[in-house]
Amino acid sequence: VCVMRERTPLPRSVIERLPQLKLIASTGRRNAAIDTQAAADRGIAIAHTGYDGRSTVEMTWALILASVRHIADENANLRGGGWQRTLGDSLHGKTLAILGLGNIGSEVARIGLAFGMRAIAWSQNLTAEKAQACGAQLVSKEELFRTADVLTIHLVLSQRTQGLVGAPELRAMKPSARLINTSRGPIVDEAALIEALREHRIAGAALDVFEIEPLPPDHPFRSLDNVLATPHLGFVSRELYKTFYGDTVKNIMQWLAQL
User: Fold this and answer.
1) Whether residue 232 lies in the annotated active site
2) 3-state secondary structure labels for all residues of 146-212
3) 2: helix, strand or coil
4) Catalytic residue (one of 16, 142, 213, 239)
5) Model confidence at 205, in pLDDT bands (50, 70, 90)?
6) Tens of pLDDT along 79-121?
7) Could you confirm whether 48 is annotated as catalytic?
8) Model confidence over 34-66: pLDDT tens digits?
9) Which residues contact 14 (CB under 8 A, 6 or more apart)?
10) d(CA 83, CA 160)
11) Given 5, 48, 178, 232, which residue is catalytic?
């Protein structure tokens, strides 16, 4: 069975209904949607492909720029026969707050510096030396949210990070601040974010990931006027798909050769 990252869930209930299954060929370096213990119990091999996070870095900046300059709204206005209706914000001199300064977050920081932004960062294990090496300043979690003009999330979803951005963190943000999430939906308390957006306690959110995917048709993120939402496109690039499917074929061939 060949599965696309977390878009094809393989829980134990599904795995147990596939008695002939011997190999799961998954795209990406890891896949939280596969019950690896259930696969191990059945002796099912799991193979992963290569991955390149640069497409997610680029998507992050696409969302940041589109959000602060109201690109989607202005495009809709123009297509409807109108002209300029919104007032965008510049990034130069603003504070880019990065929650998670790993491979993706560090590249996001580097691009922020090119825009003339001040980069700050926090995560549980981040050191001042690592932050400085990325051109960012290590701050406390409280300061990260309190001073952010743009706050972008780049953490791996785990028990430690689930719900990490909740009502207290959102209340600490400026009314002019924007939250960007291209990581994983459950890192943010979705109900708390919806409330903050409805009450306009932050300027907006640009979201590529959600607690439930695909996003339900009646979900508030589809209708709130201060939300820019995309359908988990961070990894969806032609080049990365070539890596995914090319490596998938190689993995299958290598597995067959071992039989």
Assistant:
1) yes
2) HHCCEEEECCCCCCCCCCCECHHHHHHCCCCCEEEECCCHHHECHHHHHHHHHCCCCCEEEECCCCC
3) strand
4) 213
5) very high
6) 999 999 999 999 999 999 999 999 999 999 999 999 999 999 9
7) no
8) 999 999 999 999 999 999 999 999 999 999 999
9) none
10) 46
11) 232
Region of residue 81 (left: phi > 0; alpha: psi -120 to 50; beta: else): left
Q: List the catalytic residue out of 184, 190, 200, 201.
A: 184
**Token pair belonging to 102:** 């790993």
The residues facing 138 across adjacent strands are 121
For the record, the structure tokens of 167 come out as 């009502």
184 among known catalytic residues: yes
Phi/psi region, residue 5 (left: phi>0; alpha: psi -120 to 50; beta: rest), is: left
Comparing CA positions, the residue from 148, 153, 141 lying closest to residue 206 is 153
Are 195 and 55 spatial neighbours (Cβ–Cβ below 8 Å)?
A: no
Q: Is the pLDDT confidence value at 6 over 90?
A: no
